[in-house]
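Researcher: Please predict.
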Amino acid sequence: MPANDAATVYEGENMTVKGTMETDGFVMDYFSFGSGSTPFVLIPGVSAEPVTSMAEVVAQQYKLFHEDYVTWLFDRKRDFEDGYSIEAMADDTAKAMKRLSISNACVMGSSQGGMIALYLAAKYPELVSKLVLCCTAASTDDIDGQTLQEWVRIAESGDSESLYRAYYHSIYSESFVMEYAEAIEAAVRTATPEGLHRLMELTKACLNFDARPLLADIRCDCLVVGSRIDKVLGYRAAARLAETLDCRTVIYNQYGHAAIDEAPDLKEKMLAFLKG
């Protein structure tokens, strides 16, 4: 595997390869799993902690993809600077994909990950063959912004636990929060100043972006997933994006902003789209 410091982690039935790469002056962590021949790239949304720490959980969530795809998840670069823009995140993801010789990949981006994926597909069409966009937006103008602004306000106050709690209660539906209340509170207790700063800076990037001028450059097939009770970006953002791209849609009524985690049938719908 053409990467630096690659390590294999095995738990249960999942084989996950974790790696760290250094290219063009930045360091980025990633992981991959699956034995298929088609590359499938996951770009996660805003998070307080690096998503690479959840490699085995993600591999289990995407077990339906293991046979036909090799799935890659790229985190944001390490030690990113304040003011790190979504377009810069896309450029860095493109550099990482090229470094690993990944091209013509199916790409799924959720929330901020979807914003990154829009830039990726428009600016680097050779890297993206199909695109799944979950609960995301093409522009700051398409979102309400109140929830994101509240996250920033809490972060600036320095209250890490309140920020983590507001984050989880915003991205999930009320029923999900009730069902997993203990796990969420356990996660809240892991809050750190570093996580607070990461979440704040990534959130600020969502409040200052506009990919609309590039949407006409996206030529690949797209699927937009939205939720009518999305408390973070709002349903309108996904609806407008789907209308602009004139693409297929999946709309949920009962799941929150993190529908990618909540909807039990979404992986099957994504797989049907990617293989169709």
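Model: The first helix runs from residue 55 to 61.
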